[in-house]
Each structure stands twice: as C-alpha cells, then as structure tokens.
Amino acid sequence: MENFRFKALAELNGRQPVRFEGTDKAVSAYFAENVFDRDKMRKYLTHEAFEAVVEAIDEGAKINRKFADQIASGMKSWAIERGVTHYTHWFHPLNESTAEKHDAFFEITKSGNCIENFRGELLIQQEPDASSFPSGGLRNTFEARGYTAWDPSSPAFIHDKTLCIPTVFVSFTGEALDFKAPFLKSLAVLDKAASAVAQYFDRDVRHVFSTVGLEQEYFVVEEALYHARPDLMMTGKTLMGHEAARNQQLGDHYFGTIPERVAMFMRDFEEEAYRLGIPLKTRHNEVSPNQYECAPNFEEGNLAVDHNLLLMSIMKNIAKRHNLRVLFHEKPYMNVNGSGKHCNWSLASDQGVNLLSPGKTPRNNLQFLTFFICTIRAVHEHGLLLMSSVTNLSNYQRLGTCEAPPPIMSVFIGETLQKVLNSLEEKIPNKKMTPDEKTELKLDVVGKIPEIMPDTTDRNRTSPFTFSGNRFEFRAVGASSNCAASLLILNTAVAQQLNIFKTEVDELIEKNVKKDEAILQVLRSFIVKSKNILFAGNSYSEEWRKEAEKRGLGIIDSITDAFKTYLNPKSIKLLTESGVLSKRELESRYEIKNETFLKKLQIESRVLGDLALNHIIPTAIQYQNILIQNVQGLKGLFGEKASEMIIPQMRALEKISRHVKEINIKVYQMIDERKKANAIDDTVKRAETYFINVLPFLDSIRYHIDKLEMIIDDELWPMPKYRELLFFH
Ligand code: ADP
Ligand code: MG
Hints:
By secondary structure, the protein is of the alpha+beta class. The chain has 3 domains: 31-178, Glutamine synthetase, N-terminal domain (Ubiquitin-like (UB roll)), CATH 3.10.20; 187-581, Creatine Kinase, Chain A, domain 2; 596-727, Four Helix Bundle (Hemerythrin (Met), subunit A) (Up-down Bundle). Helices cover 51% and strands 12% of the residues. The strands form 3 sheets. Strands 9, 10, 11, 12, 13, 14, 15, 16 and 17 form a 9-stranded mixed β-sheet that branches. Strands 1, 2, 5, 6, 7 and 8 form a 6-stranded mixed β-sheet that branches. The protein has a two-stranded antiparallel sheet with strand order 3-4. A hairpin with a 2-residue loop joins β7 (157-159) and β8. The chain is globular. The relative contact order is 0.11. The mean pLDDT is 92. The structure holds adenosine-5'-diphosphate and magnesium ion.
C-alpha cells in the first residue's frame, strides 16, 4: 500500500520554496488601479453620467437608461484598455461563496464584423439560471430564472482579465436569493433611523452609514499535506488527528515572526488586494500554530463586506501559487484555536463624525450615549437572533472552545462605561429636573467620559460582543461566513431601537420636556430595560451559563433550535416591518440554513465513515499482523520464556482490537442513523435528526481513531499528523 503521508513528506523535503518578487512600487502608486472608482469614472464618463452614478451611490437614486448606456460604454473602454475580454455580474448566493458567469464583450454584427460591445442593459440586469443556487423554496422548478441587478454603491473591478460588476441576486418574483439585497436594505433602514436621531445633535446630518472593519483569521497548510488528508480536502477540517505534544501551550506563535514562506504568500495576496482597492493594514500570526490574521482599514459596510469576500477568494487562489492552502474553516483542528471574523462595527455621519466615539464635551457624549445605549438595547432584544445568524456546523464547533466566545449573547463595555450607565440610571429622576440638577448631571455623568477609556484595551476575550473604545466588535462571527447575514440583523435591530427612541423622545418634547432632558429620560429607561445583557465576567464559567439562563439571554445549545429563532414572532416583526426581509424570504433562509447544515454534516459523516473503514482499520490490522508475526517469532525462539517478552505486544494487540471493534460498530450505527434520517421528507426534521442522532458519532468515532494513532507504528500511519499539518511551513 502506498503511504500518501510519506509521499507528501518526501515531496516537501525536496521542494524549493516559491520566491515572490512582487513590485517595488509604493502601494500608493498602484492602490485601486483595478477599480472603476470615482477618479476613473470622472475620466471615462460624460459629466452627466458621472453625476448620475454619484447620485445613485450617495442618495440611492435610480439611473436611467440613457446614462446606463453611457456608463456601460465608459466601463468597457476602461476595461478593454487593460486587456479585459469578459465581464461578469458578481453576486453572493446563499451558499456562502461568490458566483460569477463570464460573458465575452465581443460580438459578431449582422454584417459579419467582430466588435466589442457592452450595453447599459447588460450592466444593469442579467438573468443567470438560478436553478442550482439555494433558494429555500423561493424558486419554482418551472421558473429557474433569477435576476442579478447592478449595485452601483460597490464599484466594478477587474479580476483575472474580467470586469466584475457587483450585483444583487433576486428571484423572478422579486425575492432576494442572496445576502447583499437585504443587507443593502438594512443599511438604508439604519441610515434613515440614525440620521433622524443624529439630527437632535447636529441639524446638518443628512446620512448615517455603518462603518465595518473585518479582521479575518485563517490557517495555512502545505498543499502536499492537504492532498494527503481526504478530510481536509472534502470538508475543510480534520475529522481525526491526535493533538500534537506541542500545540499552542507555549503561546509562542501569537505575534511571532511570520515564517518566510507564509510572509511571501501574504505579500503576494496583499499586492493583489491593494490593486483591487482593499485597504489591508495589519497582518500577524495568530495563537494557533500556522494560524494568521489580516485586517483592512474599516470602510462603509457594503464595501467592507464585498472586499472581505473578494479577499477570501484572492487568498484561496494565491495560496495555490505558493503550494499552500488557506483554510477559512472555523475549527479545522481540535484543541487549538479556531478562526473567527471579528466584525468591528460603528456608525458615521456624513459630517465625518463617528457616532460611537465618546468625544470630549457633554454634548458629544450625549450623542455617543444615545447611539451606544440604543445598540446595547438592540443586542438585548435580538441577541438570540444575532447568535443564530452566526450558527452553522463549523462555527458551532468553534464557539465556546479555545478562546472563542461561547454561544451565549452578552455585551462587554468595560468598567468606565459601566459606571457611566450606572450613574445615569441612578441619577436621572423620572420627573422634571431643576436646572441645577441638569447641570450637575451633565457634568457628573455625561461630561465625565474620558476620550480614551483605559479599560477598553483590556478586552474581555470571552465576550461575544464588546465595545472597543469607538466601535463595537462582534466576535462570534465565523471566519468563513459572509458577515452580511449578521450585520443585516444588527443594522435592522439598531434601527428599530433608534426609531423607538425617537418616538419616545418626541412624545416627551411634545409634553414640553426639554430636548436634552427627554433624551436622558428615555436613555435611562433603555438602560433599565436592557442592562441584563451586560456582562463583564468570565463568559466561559459554568456560573455565567446558569446566570445567563436566569436572565433569559440567548443561549445556543442546539444548532437546529438556534435556526428556529429566524421564525419566532419577534424576529419576523423586526425584519418584515422594516422591509428588510419578507416572511417568505425569512422562511427560505431558515430552510437553507437547515439544508446547508444537514448536507455538510452528511458529508463529514460519510468522509469519516469511509476513512475509518478504508484507511484506519486496515492500517490497524496491518500493524496487528506485524505484532502477531513478532509474537509468534518470539515464541518459536524462546518457547515458554517468551511469555514475559510478549506482554507489550499482547497489550497493544488487545487495545487495537478494542478500538477497531468500537470504530467498526459505531461507523455502522452511524450509517444506520443516516439512513433512517434520510428517509424523513421534511428538511427541518431531517436536520434535527441529524443533529441529535448523527453528530455525536463524529466525536465518538474520532476518539478511538485518535487512540489508535498513538499506538500504531508511525511508519504505517497513512495521513499527515497534527505536528506536520500545524508546524510545517
Ligand atoms: P484589534 O485586533 O486590536 O481589534 P485590529 O487592528 O486587528 O485591532 O482590527 C481593528 C479593526 O477595527 C480594523 O479593521 C479597524 O479598521 C476597525 N475599526 C477601527 N475603527 C472603526 C470604526 N469606527 N468602525 C468600524 N471599524 C473600525
Ligand atoms: Mg485583531
């Protein structure tokens, strides 16, 4: 039998690393050169077409046909000058990847000439066959068409000689089949609600947008080793593997020197990212061996999400050039840290003010406190839904283990702000305040927030939602996910609270309460209603779990139960009343979440079963045969006297038999459970049955395989071990 592990290791030892030369230009010299941004639009569009796009980007205005033709033609000229031959509508179907279908610019005219063509109608709308994308029942089989429609707020870009046009993806009947369409709606809803509130403090505010900075964690693994691990190839994670004697316990990888090979990979993908206008700013080693992080500067939310998806696909491609693979799976290895995507989120007004920055004066602080407290209340109201939005098979395996926050929603704000909220709650009476009381309060509470709060650097790593000085950070999001799914909920929930806040303040103002006082009173009531969500202790502890249960916070114990939050009345009300998702769209998302979970688990279970039966058990038996031969040999040579000598061999033989037996029984039980579950027609019930009856086998079978790995001769073990996967670079 050929041992792929040794073949891979031999290949590696002889390999020269890929050298990456790259450009010696400063980043500013080529940043965004592949993006059709405002500078290029100004150059390639007529003045009026340019104005029309800017109007569409800034105000959400519609672009008429005439201008669409001009814009398409300008884009085409720009692209063709750069050697581009094809264009594509680039969209984000509900399968957590990006999709594209390329068409060539060139056309044969009636007179037989060959020309390059790209009309406005091709820019604005396309009709890809939607039948193979998840639709959760939104698409009838007889109506396979879907539409992609241009999103002018995210600029077109050139990737691999193709002009890519960011688009939304909707069904023939107008329902969203993607993440972007509802996300854009949530941004608009948030803009409206937040601008109205921001105007209490600054009459000039016309728009508020969300700012998003996404820290992306990932692993790299040597490609030859990856190919020798069918589980990594098929599922993105290791389904077996005993932990290495050394993993992250020395804490020597975090912020350590980046291995040269990996550094070359980073420079290569960074260069590509810069050309696409992705403002990558930081890179460093993460906690686990072979785990890294990169983070761009924050950008407007829609752009940040598009850039993150684009970045992930660039990283995957460029890794291959370096004989590496990049893993975005949330938990590729057991017992070391998993990978998240920390969503840094804030609100900025068109006046250039970060609304979640405490500022220096009481007035700024009051504005800050308003947005701060409304966000806290939004998380309090819809924490479980937010947690559900990050729940899937792979992130479920990450949350609550090895430094990842547990799947219990809470908010950490640090000591200083906790004190501010406490005194707001204590000091504001529910009645009209005297002028003296007001001044005192402003100086005492609102005026006292220092601009930089020292304790915000003391991050509570165990908290899923933390305030970091001038933004919130949602840390439960999985590394592989399209975080629009979570951000659209956060945006809509915050908009809902801002609307309630505004209504209540206006009611008080009608009753002749002064504006500032009305704001303080409503803020106080918001604090009282939502302070339950605040938690500063250790979120890993058992006590917190019990306490969180008592407080009625969102705790996720079951993947499929978590999904149900999508359909509870509170979530439906939030998303339908705001117009972000219709009930049918929510139902379809619920269906897709169940279906995706089910399929992924089915694949993991199949791969594990196959590997157990045709890699692991045969290897175990092979080793047993060697031991048996040895025992027989010793007995032949030494007769009676051999009985002492063969004790270790006999013990190993027994142990191996025990584990092999357990693996064998369990694999067939698992297959049986799958069969039973597969017979269930209803997707949701099938997913639940998989969760209850199939998922536990993944751990219990793995347990015995990992034990075998420790007994069997290293020379025979067929798959790369953790020490090789995690330490080879
Ligand atoms: P840390 O690991 O300490 O949290 P990083 O530098 O890795 O910090 O990432 C912080 C992220 O937060 C960056 O993407 C940064 O641009 C982003 N960020 C900073 N300010 C804001 C803001 N106002 N709104 C959204 N994101 C922000
Ligand atoms: Mg970070």
